[in-house]
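Please annotate the following for my students:
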Amino acid sequence: MPDTPLKLGSPWHEFLTEIDEHLTAPTQITCIGGFVVTNIHGFSRTTGDLDHVELQSKMPDELHQIAGKGSPLHKRYNLYIDYVGGIVTMPLNFDERLVEVPFEFETLRIFITDVYDLILSKMERNSPKDQADVQFLADKHKLRFSILRTRFDDELDFIPNRDRHLNTLNFWREWFHDHDDGGAEAVVGDEGDQTHRSGS
């Protein structure tokens, strides 16, 4: 992830800028989904929502009143904020690997998961769009299936329907690059840069 401020294209820039201007308390969200795949990792596809799995704020309902589904900003930009924490199962220690995106906002702080956690968040749904995202991320960042499988075994051993999810991982396996050199695991950010892990 570069240190220089990240510039978003329209209408995401305007949408998030208005959210930042309307928030009355510091707000931190952890984002996954299509917003991260497209705006951070560079996949060329459309998405209309910003999925998040964590929200830290003194005003926890304020963000969704401002920019949730059916809000004035949703109607203006056809974009909305969506909490998916009750739908998506994340690896146990994903919050230890978060990276803050360097946006120039005053009140809103956006964190993203590392790329392996992002991929595992797509495992339960495994839609054609999710599969395309996984294939893109694995190819762009030359990801190793061995790391993904270890992450699954170590941090998602509690997940229901384990055999079904193992079948999903094996279906994805051909998209990964397991010939990379070993070494310390890194967080993969924009343009394949390796970034030190960061807490919230």
